[in-house]
Write a structure and sequence with these properties.
This protein is an alpha+beta fold. Helices cover about 30% and strands about 25% of the residues. The strands form five sheets. Strands 6-5-14-15-16-13-17-20 form an eight-stranded mixed beta sheet.
Length: about 450
């Protein structure tokens, strides 16, 4: 006989061993929220051929949990950023990432995605909660619980399902299906929300002595651009972007074959990604390579009943701004804060109580996620010289005055959420850019301390 609901701990089922999934596992552990994580692959740290940047808004949250220190040996601090024409001619060189590090105490860290995933997994105290080879097929939503059925025949029961399974989220699709069955038309606006107007070849190539670790390179042409981050030992992690013939939605978004990728490289092989390396050079030395459409979305419904989505599964942005992973970390923190507050006073919430908390999570995140989806898209189109204004700005308009640009960047990072039930990291005590006094107290605008965290 199964235990009565009130005698079992509230349990969350996390779907997906992504960066946001593993970070959410750490957050739930610290918030004392029971969970299991189901990952479809046979590993939580696959080599997907992509780099990632951890920026100050994400770093602060990782630092709160003690995760950042063990990562710093593979995080490369970002330094100079070069902007070029597609023939390799330099247009601008800026060092704003160094200025941001000086203000906020965190460098923009360049990392291989696989190494970040591996570090997150290795730092988990209880790895038995992470289950691989668990491809999720369907959900059954009940009054007090949700049953999750997997391809191998296993079934898991929890009080909450959290989708951290990416833009092609099974969780989101199941949530929409169940919601539509209960309230026809409720999810109609979200069914075809994901769109794509650009695609990208992206990969990691062999390290080069000609590349300086920490530097980034952006090259631009009409409807094309490239982006490269150079990590430790001169390892290039790069993207080559092109505009599609139109904006595609949902199932009509193009999927690419190896032959199509080879044709793309053949047509654009001379595109200079740095001053002395073109796309053909990078492909020749590649160790990992992918070709995908760049999906964008910000869904209207983030949750229904006992199901909720986090990160790319609900707010997907292009990679040019480097905020996709960081925004997923922010959403994971906000969800954890909301659940921690609820479960502290109500260990076994009703569906109505839980739904209200999940709505609060979305309300707290909607404005900021929309901002970063929009900003990411603006940068993608700006880099690819999408219209005359972008061309003129690229060629003739000087960068913003340094301090003004840093003010804007600082505001974007420092206003992000954090884990409210954990202390602030000591390294930012006394940093007024974060609004903290020397003991980590939050400063009001008048300079007085409002609270100790």
């Amino acid at each position: 006989m199964s235990k009565p609901q009130a005698s079992r701990p509230f349990t969350a089922i996390l779907i997906g061993g992504s960066i946001s999934g593993l970070i959410l596992a750490h957050m739930f552990s610290r918030a004392k929220i029971n969970f299991i994580l189901l990952e479809a692959r046979d590993t939580v740290s696959p080599q997907l051929g992509a780099g990632i940047t951890i920026q100050a808004n994400g770093s602060r949250i990782l630092d709160q949990m003690g995760l950042l220190g063990p990562m710093e040996h593979f995080l490369t601090p970002m330094g100079r950023q070069w902007r070029r024409k597609s023939n390799g001619e330099v247009v601008k060189c800026m060092e704003w990432p160094v200025g941001i590090a000086g203000r906020l105490g965190y460098s923009i860290g360049i990392a291989e995605r696989q190494m970040l995933l591996q570090s997150l997994y290795e730092q988990l105290e209880d790895k038995s909660k992470i289950l691989v080879n668990k491809k999720v097929l369907s959900f059954e939503h009940g009054e007090d619980e949700v049953k999750v059925s997997c391809e191998d025949g296993s079934v898991y029961v929890g009080n909450l399902v959290v989708g951290v399974d990416g833009v092609h989220s099974r969780t989101r699709r199941e949530m929409q299906r169940i919601a539509e069955e209960a309230s026809p038309g409720l999810m109609a606006g979200d069914m075809n929300k994901v769109s794509a107007e650009y695609n990208a070849i992206f990969g990691i190539s062999a390290a080069s002595p000609h590349l300086i670790p920490g530097e980034s390179h952006i090259s631009s042409d009409i409807d094309k651009s490239s982006l490269m981050f150079v990590s430790k030992h001169g390892l290039p992690q790069w993207f080559f972007f092109t505009k599609l013939d139109k904006r595609y939605y949902g199932d009509d978004i193009p999927r690419y074959t190896k032959e199509q990728m080879e044709k793309q490289v053949e047509e654009n092989g001379d595109f200079c990604v740095t001053g002395n390396m073109n796309l053909r050079d990078l492909i020749r030395e590649t160790t990992s390579l992918s070709y995908l459409s760049l999906e964008e979305a910000n869904h209207e419904h983030w949750s229904w009943g006992r199901i909720v989505c986090v990160g790319d599964s609900i707010h997907k942005m292009t990679p040019n701004l480097g905020q996709g992973g960081n925004q997923a970390i922010e959403s994971a923190a906000t969800l954890t804060n909301t659940l921690h507050t609820l479960l502290t006073t109500t260990p076994h919430p009703t569906t109505s109580q839980l739904s209200a908390a999940l709505k609060k999570y979305q309300d707290l995140r909607t404005q900021r996620s929309k901002l970063f989806v929009k900003l990411s898209g603006v940068v993608t189109r700006d880099d690819a010289l999408a219209d005359l204004r972008n061309v003129l700005r690229f060629l003739y308009v000087p960068p913003l005055e340094k301090e003004k640009f840093l003010d804007i960047q600082t505001q974007l990072y420092a206003t992000g959420p954090y884990l409210e039930f954990l202390p602030q990291p000591e390294r930012i005590f006394g940093n007024r850019s974060w609004g903290l006094d020397e003991q980590g107290g939050v400063l009001e605008k008048n300079g007085k301390t409002r609270a100790r965290l």
